[in-house]
């Protein structure tokens, strides 16, 4: 296993370099004057342009620029925005709330999705099953921004059960409704995945063996059925956590959450290349690491998977 | 702890001196979308301590369903037991509480399956799956149970038991897996062991080893063994009595020697010509012509008549009774006596 982890970590290097380079090129090598529009209506004065060009190594080829950037990045320096703010500070300011939101979303989809899946998977066809099927279909077919605005209006403004927007402190309580919105689509998938997985394993031969061994019903379900059925579900939840950690532009926008999704959105609009590159590079690293952890988790859950 | 001690501690319907296990006129049907499949239509057999009963028959004849009904592990629904009794020490298991049924399942009657790979849980170690019974049923500690599991793996001659006990089913070879399955079934010292085609999925050489092991363990522990198999060669060697099943009925029931000398039912005769035999390797096999009947619509009269070379007019209308051919031997064929006595 140790060797596998090492190999996977080494594999991260080329993937990391490749993706970051692509991002860098896409952001910086776009045709046109990168400083257009930065100085109001007038063209920028030559001294400013010269300073900026020097600061961002614009007179070098894109390869040299990239490697200079990468060098700084590896020392923990994400660079500065055009207005001189450290991108690292910006990220530190805005990433925690996005992570918090992602964790809440995954927790909600895990608890509700798995509970609904187990209930329907064990019971088989019937009223509860149909209810869950229909409501998941509903969730799957409605776009996030509709769910978001709907919940905001109904529970936030009309009923006043939850705050309609998130304050700058972004407390856990304020994030519950946005977390639900963000997790609702995956929640539907989790419940269906759990249901299918349980219904499938329920008929497995090893269940019959456990029964033939005279094991109590509770133990047959709790020990033999759930453990086997959990494998695809936990894998999905892990992958989803990785996805949601990439920020949620729509959900953050609806609820006014000052997170990383909004940061990306703003910096793209403002052509803040350094910020865009920095954030996206960070998200790529997070995504790769989360995926590595999921792969390892998978091996722990299913001993048939062996990585050597 | 054996089933007898259960009998002492609980108020059960155990009858002294009753046969160990008796299936009596058992009916099972499967209610499916296509209709009601009458899978068992009055199956009766019994097994006593130290005895081996072989159950033979084509695929779909109801061998496994009978075994599952005895274990109480049928999928109900779609399956439903619609008649008959399953008596263990004289106590009808179809009438006892769910708890008592589960106790008997654990400690009185054990079962091993054809495909040990799918019958074992892939995500737990072999040791865990043996120990779980000892811990749950006997309240053993982890260490005690581990020791006992190693001893059981030793008993079924798995080399390196102390290391193997920590491995997962997929790390075992097919033969070793079936041995582990046998070890698991022996954990609580059952009085009856049902082996549903325990060697079908294995290589020929391994098959013989597993059969030897089963036979040896059975003799040592004086267990009743119900052996479901396709292999007439194996049956000849190990079975005391043979039950031949067709369309959910036992059509011939006889001791192994007389059945081999002279089958008492045309279906048995046909089976003997068609089933693979270890001693006749390489010979061309005759297959029984035609297909087994649909259990949704079993033919009137003798269910075997559409395929029977000896069929007469009365076979098409009159269901053959169970003819006694002496000494516990029976046959459900109108011409049973001719078959045994005639030339
Ligand atoms: N879960 C089920 N649903 C519907 N029908 C079933 C089910 N299980 C068994 N049957 C039917 O019961 C009949 C007997 O099956 P059984 O498994 O006892 O056959 P068998 O004699 O063990 O055959 P084989 O030699 O193939 O194992 C078959 O016709 C089968 O279609
Ligand atoms: S009763 Fe008739 S059809 Fe049935 S086995 Fe005997 S001879 Fe054949
Ligand atoms: Mg079978």
Automatic annotation (TrEMBL), chain A:
Main subcellular localisation: membrane
Gene Ontology terms describing biological process: transmembrane transport
Residues passing through the membrane, by range: 12-30, 99-119, 131-155, 175-193, 244-265, 277-301
GO cellular component, as recorded: plasma membrane
InterPro entries: BPD_transp_1_N, MetI-like, MetI-like_sf
Span of domain ABC transmembrane type-1: 95-298
Family membership noted in the UniProt record: Belongs to the binding-protein-dependent transport system permease family.
Designated name of the protein: ABC transporter permease
Automatic annotation (TrEMBL), chain B:
A GO term, aspect molecular function: ATP hydrolysis activity
Keywords: ATP-binding, Cell membrane, Membrane, Nucleotide-binding, Transport
Highest taxon listed in the record's lineage: Bacteria
Keyword ATP-binding on entry: yes
Membrane-topology annotation of the record: Peripheral membrane protein
GO biological processes: peptide transport
Compartment annotation: Cell membrane
Pfam families: ABC_tran, oligo_HPY
Main location: membrane
A Gene Ontology term for the protein's cellular component: plasma membrane
ABC transporter domain segment(s): 21-272
Keyword Nucleotidyltransferase attached: no
PANTHER family membership: DIPEPTIDE TRANSPORT ATP-BINDING PROTEIN DPPD, OLIGOPEPTIDE TRANSPORT ATP-BINDING PROTEIN APPD
Family: Belongs to the ABC transporter superfamily.
Database matches in NCBIfam families: oligo_HPY (TIGR01727)
The protein's name in its UniProt record: Methionine ABC transporter ATP-binding protein
Species: Actinophytocola xinjiangensis
Taxonomic path: Bacteria, Bacillati, Actinomycetota, Actinomycetes, Pseudonocardiales
């Amino acid at each position: 296993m140790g060797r596998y982890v090492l190999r996977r970590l080494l594999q991260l290097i080329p993937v990391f370099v490749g993706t970051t380079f692509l991002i860098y090129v896409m952001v910086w090598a776009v045709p046109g004057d990168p400083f257009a529009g930065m100085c109001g209506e007038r063209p920028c004065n030559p001294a400013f342009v010269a300073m900026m060009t020097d600061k961002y190594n614009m007179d070098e080829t894109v390869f040299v620029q990239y490697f200079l950037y990468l060098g700084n990045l590896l020392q923990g320096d994400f660079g500065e925005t055009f207005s001189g703010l450290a991108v690292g500070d910006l990220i530190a300011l805005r990433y925690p709330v996005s992570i918090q939101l992602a964790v809440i979303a995954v927790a909600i989809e895990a608890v509700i999705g798995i509970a609904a899946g187990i209930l329907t998977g064990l019971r088989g066809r019937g009223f509860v099953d149909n209810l869950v099927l229909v409501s998941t279909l509903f969730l799957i077919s409605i776009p996030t921004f509709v769910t978001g605005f709907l919940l905001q209006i109904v529970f936030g403004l009309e009923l006043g059960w939850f705050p309609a927007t998130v304050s700058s402190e972004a407390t856990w309580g304020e994030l519950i409704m946005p977390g639900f919105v963000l997790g609702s689509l995956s929640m539907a998938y989790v419940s269906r995945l759990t249901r299918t997985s349980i219904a499938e394993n329920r008929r497995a031969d090893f269940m019959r063996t456990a029964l033939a061994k005279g094991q109590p019903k509770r133990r047959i379900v709790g020990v033999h059925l759930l453990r086997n059925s959990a494998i695809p579900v936990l894998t999905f939840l892990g992958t989803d956590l990785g996805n949601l950690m990439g920020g949620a532009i729509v959900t953050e926008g609806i609820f006014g959450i000052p997170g990383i999704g909004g940061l990306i959105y703003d910096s793209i609009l403002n052509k803040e290349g350094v910020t865009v590159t920095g954030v996206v590079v960070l998200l790529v690293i997070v995504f790769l690491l989360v995926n590595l952890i999921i792969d390892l988790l998978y091996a722990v859950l299913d001993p048939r998977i062996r990585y050597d | 702890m054996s089933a007898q001690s259960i009998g002492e501690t609980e108020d059960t319907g155990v009858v002294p001196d009753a046969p160990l296990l008796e299936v009596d006129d058992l009916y099972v049907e499967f209610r499916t979308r296509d209709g009601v499949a009458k899978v068992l239509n009055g199956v009766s057999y019994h097994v006593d301590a130290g005895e081996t009963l072989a159950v033979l028959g084509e695929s779909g004849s109801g061998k496994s369903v009978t075994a599952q009904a005895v274990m109480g592990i049928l999928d109900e629904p779609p399956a439903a037991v619609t008649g008959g009794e399953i008596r263990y020490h004289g106590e009808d298991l179809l009438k006892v509480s769910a708890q008592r049924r589960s106790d008997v399942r654990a400690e009185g009657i054990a079962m091993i399956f054809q495909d040990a790979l799918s019958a074992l849980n892939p995500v737990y170690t072999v040791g865990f799956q043996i120990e779980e019974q000892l811990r749950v049923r006997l309240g053993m500690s982890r260490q005690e149970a581990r020791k006992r599991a190693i001893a059981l793996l030793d008993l079924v001659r798995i080399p390196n038991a102390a290391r193997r006990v920590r491995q997962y089913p997929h790390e075992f070879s097919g033969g070793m897996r079936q041995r582990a399955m046998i070890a698991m079934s022996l954990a609580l010292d059952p009085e009856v062991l049902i082996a549903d085609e325990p060697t079908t999925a294995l290589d020929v050489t391994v098959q013989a080893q597993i059969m030897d092991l089963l036979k040896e363990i059975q003799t040592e522990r004086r267990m009743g063994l119900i052996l479901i198999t396709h292999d007439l060669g194996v049956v000849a060697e190990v079975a005391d009595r043979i039950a031949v099943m067709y369309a959910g009925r036992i059509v011939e029931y006889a001791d192994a020697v007389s059945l081999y000398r002279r089958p008492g039912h045309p279906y048995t005769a046909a089976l003997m010509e068609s089933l693979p035999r270890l001693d006749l390797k390489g010979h061309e096999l005759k297959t029984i012509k035609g297909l087994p009947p649909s259990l949704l619509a079993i033919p009137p009269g003798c269910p075997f008549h559409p395929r029977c070379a000896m069929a007469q007019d009365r076979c098409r209308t009159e269901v053959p009774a169970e003819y006694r051919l002496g000494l516990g031997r029976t046959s459900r064929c109108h011409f049973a006596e001719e078959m045994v006595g005639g030339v």
